[in-house]
Design brief:
The chain contains 4 helices and 39 strands. With about 725 residues, it is mainly beta. It has a single domain (about 5-720), classed as Maltoporin, Chain A. Strand 21 and strand 22 (about 475-485) form a beta hairpin. The longest helix is centred in the first third of the chain and has 11 residues, at about 5-15.
Length: about 725
Amino acid sequence: MNFLIIFLILISHSFSKTQIDSSKIDLPEIEIYGGIDENPITTNIDVLDDTIFTKDGNNNFQDLIQSIPSLHYSGGTSRAKYFQLRGLGELSQFSGEGPPHFYVGYLVDNIDFSGIGMIGKLYDFEQIEIFKGPQTASYGPNSMAGLINLVSKKPSNEKTFNFNSSIYSNNGQSFNLSTSIPVTDNILTKITLSSDYSDGFITNISEQNDTKYDTNSKDENLAKFQIAYFPNSNLSLKYIYYNIKLDNKYDVWAPDNNGFTTYSDYQGLDVQKTKANSLNINYQLNDIKLILISTFSKNDIIYSFDGDWGNSNFWSNNPYNWNLNNPDYLFPWSFSDLTNRSRESYSNELRLKTNIYYGIPLTFGFYQSKVNENDLRNGFLFGGYANNIDSKFDIYNYAVYSKISPLTTDKMSLTISLRYDINETKQDLNYEFYDYYNYPYNYFYYPQYGNYKNEVKDDLIGGNVSINYKLNQYTYLNTNFSRGYKTSGINQTTNPALPDSLKIYETEYCNNFDVGFIYRKDKYDVKISAFYLDRINPQLRLSYQFGGPTNFDFATFNADEGYNHGFEINSNYLFSENLSLGFYYTYLKTYVSEFKYLGQSYGDRSLAHSPKRKYGFSLDKNLSKFLTGLSISINSNFVSSFYFEEQNNNMSASYNLVDLSLNYKYTNMNISFWSKNLTNEKYPIRGYQFSLDPISFINNEVKSYQSFGDPRTIGITIDYNL
């Protein structure tokens, strides 16, 4: 469907992402759980509540990304886990790329899943908080571009039961239930179970593959247990336990870029098993409040893929004709890559809040964390210098921080935050490689072994100063200046072409300025925010191909300078109690200066996966005059073109996605008939430019390849509360 038609439909009807039942838009009573006592009218924080989780087929956080301003993601995995906020973020984390340091943090109930954010099932979550811009004052490293915070619904002091189930395209089916059971008046418990399965939209036609129709299936299961204990009015303890199993397959790439049919003969996997715990203790003693937050998670991950995306019959036919009967072809054109990753992380945070000093609110805290990540990877690695690697990273972080509000009146508030981090990254890399001396004239390879150890340490200072001002009962202004950082790191490559001076890359800093405006009166509200982020020593993670389709080497470099700036507009208009319209628009400009990698110049352009424009419309229309409890929702989201990688000029096409849902509410039951990507748009989510096929390999040519998001999906969701 033409976007102009969608636009006219939306203008004529109007929209909103949340159900609005009043005839007036008031400032919402929003509690922000992340950060440190954040102001709910700050324009660089978006809060998405659970009213959008049960319609439009939104089962996973990935389903919401297209409609969230300033947020983007890069594919390459079965679920989104590499995010970009305001143009900054990682594109991947292949074993060998370096330590698990990230621009965008990803927390689930205070548990850090940065870089492994496939844990995004939305069922039984209360809200999602999107923090835009540097959050290092609150979170330290892994949050220079921002942070995504998912918050679960709490146990209730009454018995409750909820059942939620969906059936949708490609044999998709989900079953979810949760129940709150108060054991006593001061002991509350909650159990949540969730299961989701889909065959996926890929058809594999490799003759060697027995599972031709589910090589990209998703089989995701989650169990969550919560207990809240209130021994007295001054003390509370809240504990959450997760047991998660994501048994997903991964097969989306094809040499002909068709997007829906694959030829691979090696089954790719994207499997994750997680056990995680979060404990939150609050103790109030007169005017002093103590908060202890402790977390632990253990994650076992398998990531594998067919490196050539084909099979022997595919490559032996025209136009490739790669046949071992030909004496020029000495080996089968067949490549695979397998990584076993284990990540354990724990953290402890002690926070003290008081206002005993002249009544000025003051927060003081200590933070400590440790991450152990082990990678075992088999493949043709580091440009052929390794056949397998056993990589271990130990990352230690210690921090002290404070936040003070020296000025708080009915009209204005001033807050100042300061944080000091000590971050230490240690690496132990063991690898095995073959001596290819005289290859291909003889076949005697000599295995050799190596060990490469290194470590870096950062002393980091960040913070922010924010001012919120109430101009009148309808108008609010805010400004924020923040200093952020992303820690230094270690390049794992053993390739002698990379000089020793580049084996370590430097810390990146940024200075960011935000300004925002909110106006809300009666049936209309608008929020405008603008920012400018100046990057110092921008980090760029790059890859370089040395031969076959999996023969890549990786390294991170520092450019001299860069910047990201832009603005965002959000508005809603309530025509009546039955009709509402909403709109958002974001503009983003990114730049990184020229830099060189292995003798070639890159940069002097915008960043990868940072679309210049995103905008959207949505409509909520009450149809109770036809049937009591009936409503319709339409959402349309546009994403402009963007570069796929930092070191080439391969770009995506712009695209527009339309979602539609017809919702019916009857007593305790909600039924939603929905379609995602209604117009069946073929839209790219990841792209590469390299030599994949035998002809390109022989001729030293590169071609462009893309993978695509889900086509049209149709389903029905039933949600029942008791």
